Amino acid sequence: MTKNKWISGTLGTLATIAIWWLVAATMFRNTPKGATESIGAMPTPPEVLIQFGVDGFDFYARNAAVTIAEAGIGFLWGNLAALCLAAVTLILPKLENLASQIALITYCIPIVAIGPIIRLVLGAPGAGEPSETAIALAALSVFFTTMVGAMTGVKSADRAALDVVTVFGGNAWHRLVKVQLLSALPSILAALRIAAPAAFLGAILGEYVGGPDVGFGPAMVNAQQSLEVARVWALALVSGAIAGGAYALVGLVSRVVTPWSKGSVNA
């Protein structure tokens, strides 16, 4: 089964690259006025590879370090806030509706619209420092997913096990720690798996309005303004690879931590 997945994945990747190359070489080969080379809105794979070589590893590593730091801090605080709020609602069930409304609001608010407001509140970052706006948007991007995953997992706890804890004198906190948390762990890790790339995307969107001078956000803006199409695509591909790597890393952790989970084994 694993071998078939690798084969199908490889064939799918090669097919995607072939289609990309064909479309870029035929449909989007518009030569800008005054340009000596035919480079349109969609460069071919070789052009992107050449751009990687021209920019060098240091260019992408320097920008990635800042964006990953912003996404990591936002991922930590956003998930921590979601898990804490979920724990409070379990201990105090009357607050569940309010907590659900708060989580829904964070999900429904357009990140692009609230980004400038957060920028005005938090201010601009220093030279070479992570953007607090990007951190805030990264945290906002993961809050709803983790909150829902935690609540869903906790509610799936075995009722008989909860009754046993109650019979032996346990309270809501004992039920949460001894039964519900273990039951919710697979769902929480699944939510964190989705939240990891979401935090990275939120950080990039935050960089567009957050004002840092280093990071994938400002690098993409500069490349767009300079009409460096191949660099924009290169940055987008590296961003996608990092987000996919974060998703895979959390999935690996979930398989190690919860080997009894059927979803983790088949992932």
Question: Mind sketching the topology for me?
Answer:
Layout: H1 2-26, H2 45-55, H3 57-91, H4 96-108, H5 111-122, H6 132-155, H7 159-167, H8 172-210, H9 216-225, H10 229-257, H11 262-266
Helix pairs in contact: 2-10, 3-6, 3-8, 4-6, 5-6, 5-8, 6-8, 7-8, 8-9, 8-10, 9-10
Explain how this protein is built.
- The chain is mainly α.
- The protein has a single domain (57-266), classed as MetI-like fold.
- It has helices spanning 2-26, 45-55, 57-91, 96-108, 111-122, 132-155, 159-167, 172-210, 216-225, 229-257, 262-266.
CATH class: Mainly Alpha
| Helical content class | over 70%
Low-pLDDT windows of residues: 32-39, 263-267
Envelope shape: globular
> In whole angstroms, how far apart are the ends?
12 Å
Whole-number average pLDDT?
82
How many domains in all?
1
| Main beta sheet strand tally, sense and closure | none
CATH homologous superfamily assignment: MetI-like
Give the strand content: under 5%
| Order of SSEs | HHHHHHHHHHH
Pairing-aware structural class of the strands and helices?
mainly alpha
CATH-assigned fold name: MetI-like fold
Question: Which terms would index this structure?
Answer:
79% helix; mainly alpha; MetI-like fold; 267 residues; globular
Summarize the structure.
With 267 residues, this protein is mainly α. The protein contains eleven helices and no strands.
